[in-house]
Amino acid sequence: MYFHLRNRLKQKPFIKTRVFNKLSLAPHRKGLVLRVVIITPKKPNSALRHVAKVTIYKNIKRIFGRIPGIGYLPVKFNRVLVRGGRANDLPSVRLTLVRNIYDFSPLSMRKRRRSIYGVSRPSGFTKHKRRRYRHLHM
């Protein structure tokens, strides 16, 4: 009986490896791009997805981050901001890069989902005119 308990106490506690552990318990972290890679997704999907290998400044861990949007890709030694958000069909990709912060440029001419791609609101752009007040917007 005691032998069983002694072995149980010797075992290390099981800790899940989560995204927050990689970002050292923060919502965002600054990182440095080491290289940009093109990966193909898992079985039912087919595409060419851009992924960047990033070193996190704080804990010096190297992880893969998804590059959202079409267009400009970060170059080697660019500074980027990394947040959580995994790509379901890409194995080992659990983080996403944030656009329009540090050296990672925004997408131009985006009207919808601007906050994700780092685009500021264009001048004179109203998202939705309420039906009740539409006679006021001429």
TrEMBL record:
The keyword Ribonucleoprotein applies. The keyword Ribonucleoprotein applies. InterPro entries: NA-bd_OB-fold, Ribosomal_uS12, Ribosomal_uS12_bac. Keywords: Mitochondrion, Ribonucleoprotein, Ribosomal protein. Pfam families: Ribosom_S12_S23. It comes from the Eukaryota. GO terms for molecular function: structural constituent of ribosome. GO terms for cellular component: small ribosomal subunit. SUPFAM superfamilies: Nucleic acid-binding proteins. GO terms for biological process: translation. Belongs to the universal ribosomal protein uS12 family. This is 30S ribosomal protein S12. It comes from Euplotes vanleeuwenhoeki. The gene is rpsL.
